[in-house]
Hints:
There is one protein chain. Helices cover 87% and strands 0% of the residues. It has 14 helices and no strands. The two termini are 46 Å apart.
Amino acid sequence: MKTTKFWILGYFIAIFMTLFLFPMTSRVLGLAFIFSLIINTPARFVSRKIPKGALNIITGIALLTFMFFLIYSAIPITIKGVRSLSTELDSLFNDGAFDNWLEKLPPFVSEAIVDIVESASQWLSDAAITIGQYVASNITSWITGVVLLIIAGFVIARRTGLIQKGAPILFPGCDQDKVGSFFDSLYKDFQTYIGGQLIIALFVGTIIGIGSAIIGVPNAIFLGLLAGITNFIPYLGVVVTSIPMIVLSFVSKGFWGVVGAVVLLVFANQIEIWFLSPKILSNRVKINWFIVLVSIIGFGELLGVFGVVFAVPILIFVKRFWMDFVLKERGENNWESTIETGTKKVREKNHPLQEERTDSQKD
């Protein structure tokens, strides 16, 4: 048991270190593994008469189609939105309405607003230049990463039992049944998590898409798909969608369009945080939602966006490892797995006479 435990823990530490030693390759392969789980998810709910290999290919192609549609749509939508927003702001500042409004305010308030507007304008200009330079310098790496992600995702989806088959070589001197059992359980935990994320993404995407259409925001289908796909970044999918949605709302509906978009985004975000994630994700994965949230923040500080995506899978591994090795090992040594019961046994061992006296007094 101990040999198996140390081998599995050693592999986990080695893989985690590659996230820093080979950041692009290891992180893309991590995303490819998640992509393979998404591809394999529909196959769990269909009849055995349907070839699962063909279904996996169809699911993968459909997902890639959605992603490329979003990328293809995002560029013209963003350019059009930014141009329209620039036109609206120019008309606001140049026709004198903004200056007239400022004159009605106290001097210290108007000066503060002018400083904020000038700072925001400078920040947006610098941010646009920085983003353009970053995209231009990294576009080749991104294309390579996307190609690797797609190929590796399909390969991993077709080779789900690769670790079990290679266990005698990868885990020499270990309990092979225990190794197989651990990775079978771990993979099912990952599938359960991805299944829950798909349900949450479907709900959030539907809320954003239908809500955008109701309040009259253009490109509602685009916004719904964007919210659904980016929702695989836990708790942050709605935040990613907020930028294009607010821009489109302002251009099409003005101030009240922005108010409606913000209300819709907050509503969808709160539904996810307080209802969908606790009820679906926490109940399926059986990890407290607060621990999930803290882990997302912590790994986000450590690995950026990739840390946010990998936080829950890492938690799932830690939980499975703890259950299969630490708790079971303690159980074999006649240790109790709960703090309350363990404390009671220690108290009874240290004060047996006191416990007996208490029992006699009760009689």
